[in-house]
Structure formats: structure tokens, C-alpha cells
Amino acid sequence: MIKQEINEIKRLFTPNSCSITRICGCYVDGEKNKKTEFKEAFLSLPEEEIFKYFELLRKALSGSVGKNLLNLGFPTDSETDGGTQEFLFRLRESKLKDEALLEEFYDRIIASYEFVGNYLILLIHDAYDVPGKTTDGLTMEDASDTVFEYILCCICPVVLSKPGLSYDAEINEFHNRMRDWVVNMPETGFLFPAFNDRASDIHSVLYYSKNPEELHSEFVEGILGCALSLSAGVQKEAFQTIIEETLGEDCEYAVVKSIHENLTEMIEEHKEIPEPLTLDKKEVKRLLEKSGVEEEKLTDFEKLYDAAAGEDTALFVDNVASIRTFEVKTPDVVVKVNPERADLVNTMMVDGRKCLVIEINDQVEVNGINVKAFGS
Length: 376
Known about the structure:
By secondary structure, the protein is of the alpha+beta class. It is built from ten helices and 20 strands. The strands form seven sheets. Strands 1, 2, 3, 4, 5, 8, 9 and 12 form an eight-stranded antiparallel β-sheet that branches.
């Protein structure tokens, strides 16, 4: 799924667009015991509760594709009888009205999900009449091409509210506030099936993780049966390792700066394209060649790439490129530059010493104080 498709589903979680048929939940304590369960027709809930559930559901579809939101494909064997995809498909087809399926779903999550504390398993069913679009991208509200029937699950920590004082208006006094259990925003969730090309793709699922470096692989394996890609942080580390080991002792400032500038240029050229920008092994090699890495240094590139990232792994550019800043760090100095102006920082020999040289203008501040760049 691309960002536009994710946003289209998120827009359903509003009063005017909502078509959610059913919501179910199971509250699990820190000892993995089911404390309570509920099943409701969603639109029969009080308006205040509906708005709170909307917030939770939208959060489970938030973040960056390739970082918090991962498009995962089901392995073939998961679609046979007893497989994870086949189970989720039956759960969707039941419209969450089969109590035995719901109990099995909760049990599977409790058995596989590693979490310290209490949490709420939320599950909704929806059938969305997907409106058609004109060739220029305009939505035709009265022309539905297909129905996207899906389930969305999110797992939300349940924590005690913070202690404090509260004001009692009836007696006009302040007293110690009673602490109660509060449902927090989701840590984990998934949308099945995926909404690819604005239609159901039962062979794929969209997975959400609040923390992109804690993807709960045990949950993905046990509930979805899918293979996880590298996390955003691991992708960045792999990219850095590939560059450092490819260049070796010739990992010079000018080459690394050129790589940064070329990545920035690629991001700029791609910004109108909805699909996330990724680089596979061949494309990373072309990036290094374009950035001035000599051919003799690329002799073992494929082996180095496979060892650091994996043979068939594509890297999300947003995960490996420093989009917000260009940073140069020494043990005692850190220089951060607008990523589009990396040209302002260069290396130079001054009086026999290796130096960073920063081009400046008349506007210079030190601790917020305007100073003259040079003494008179």
C-alpha cells in the first residue's frame, strides 16, 4: 500500500464516512488472562466512544511506509487449510460474528504477543464501497467500482492514569484524583487484506508498529506468518556498513558527501511519485559509481551488500538517507548543515593540519547572539 491508499482508509474513521459494521475487544492482564470481552455493532456505541475508537484506529495506520508501516506478503503455505492467511480470511468472512473464531484469534495473540503489562485487543470489520476515479484522479462519489471488505486489529496498552489532584465542582474542593485504567494508543496492528491499487489483495497485509525498531517479530510470525524486512535502523546501519567496507581506507569525506548529494537529488526527483523510493543492490552500486567510487573498489560489492543487508533486500531511501540534516562529527565538534547545502562544508589542509572549512556569510550567531564573522 502507498500513502494515498492508507490515507483513503484512514478517512473512513470519521463520522461522515464511517461504514464499520462491528467492533470486538478482549482485555488481557499482565498474567495473560482474559479479563473481559465485548462485541458491538459499531454505530450503536455512544458518540463519545466512537470518536475515541476513531483515534485508536487512525493511529494504527499512521507513520511512514517502510518504517512504521510495512507491506508484508503471505508465504504460499499460509493460504492452505490451517495457515495464518487462511485463518484471517475466515475471520474476515465471518464478519466477526463467529465467537469460536474470535476466541481462537484472541488466544493466538495472547500466546504469541510479548508485552509486559495489560493490553486491549481491538478488532473491527468494515465493508467500504470504493468510489471510482476519473482519469485525472477525481473521485466519483456515486460510482462504486468494488467493495473492500477488511478487518483491522490494533493492540493498545492499558495503563494506570497518573496520580494528581483534581477539582470537585460539587463541593468546591481539591482532592487526590482517583487513578483508573486508561487505553493508550496502539503499539501494534494490522490491516487485512491490504488495499493495494485501491482493491483487496488477500495475499498481502499492512503491518503497523509504533516503534520501528521493536517490530514484535514473534507477533508477525505467530499471527501473520509473514517474513519481516529489516527495521529502519538496521537498514541505515547496513547502508553505512556497505559504504565503509566498500571504500575501506579510501572512505574520504568528498565521496561520502557526493553520496549524500546524489541521494538528496534522487529524493527531490521522486517526491511527486506516490510509491516509496527504494534501492536494490544494483541501484546502490550505481549510486556509488555515480558518487565517484572507483571500479576497483566495487569488485567485492555484491558480497559486501549480501552480508550487510541480504541478497534480495531493497533499502528504503528515507531510512538510509539523512533527509533533515547533513552532519559532520568529530570527537569534540558536531556540525549540522541544511542537507541541501552540504557544499558549504569542505576539508582543507591549513598550516599543515586537517581542517573542516565552513563557508559563512555576514549572518553568524553564537549561542543566539549575533557576532561579526571576522574581527576588524
